[in-house]
């Protein structure tokens, strides 16, 4: 990881240097060097006025571009909100279980052609419920005897043996 971080830092530094060199090259192409030596006071004032006019023009262009960028950003945000609203409106409702008999289902599928009533429960086996309470005999006795028998080490031994 440290090697990767070192390599990324080197590339980042190189990228910064490349950007600075590109900026200097662009400025040297676009802006002529100023020659202020040997100029009189009125010529220097005229030069300053020209530079101020150019700065105002560039500043107006920058302001217009910034306003367009802000407008586009606001429009993108509004469109994102609209998309989220549209997604939220069309939620699929949770499906509910509906009990329909086999006859009603066949009538719905086949229409008036269905005349045979179908009793699906008639073919099922009947299962008898086992009554577990009746099988176990219930011992009714004096609970005090049971407590006395289970007390002490012998009672514990009976519990483990059982």
From TrEMBL:
Residues 9-61 form a coiled coil. Keywords: Acetylation, Actin-binding, Coiled coil, Muscle protein. One of its GO terms (cellular component) is troponin complex. GO terms for biological process: cardiac muscle contraction; skeletal muscle contraction. The keyword Transport does not apply. GO terms for molecular function: actin binding. The keyword Coiled coil applies. Belongs to the troponin I family. Binds to actin and tropomyosin. Troponin I is the inhibitory subunit of troponin, the thin filament regulatory complex which confers calcium-sensitivity to striated muscle actomyosin ATPase activity. This is Troponin I, fast skeletal muscle. It comes from Calypte anna (Anna's hummingbird).
């Amino acid at each position: 990881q440290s090697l990767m971080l070192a390599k990324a830092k080197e590339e980042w530094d190189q990228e910064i240097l490349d950007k600075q060199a590109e900026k200097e090259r662009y400025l040297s192409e676009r802006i002529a060097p100023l020659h202020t030596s040997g100029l009189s006071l009125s010529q220097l004032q005229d030069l300053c006025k020209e530079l101020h006019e150019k700065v105002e023009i560039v500043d107006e262009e920058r302001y217009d571009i910034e306003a367009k960028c802000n407008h586009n950003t606001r429009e993108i945000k509004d469109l994102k909100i609209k998309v989220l609203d549209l997604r939220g409106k069309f939620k699929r409702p949770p499906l509910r279980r509906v009990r329909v008999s086999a006859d009603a289902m066949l009538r719905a599928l086949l229409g008036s052609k269905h005349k045979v009533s179908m009793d699906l429960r008639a073919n099922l086996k009947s299962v008898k419920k086992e009554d577990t309470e009746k099988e176990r005999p219930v011992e009714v006795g004096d609970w005090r005897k049971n407590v006395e028998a289970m007390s002490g080490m012998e009672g514990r031994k009976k519990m483990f043996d059982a």
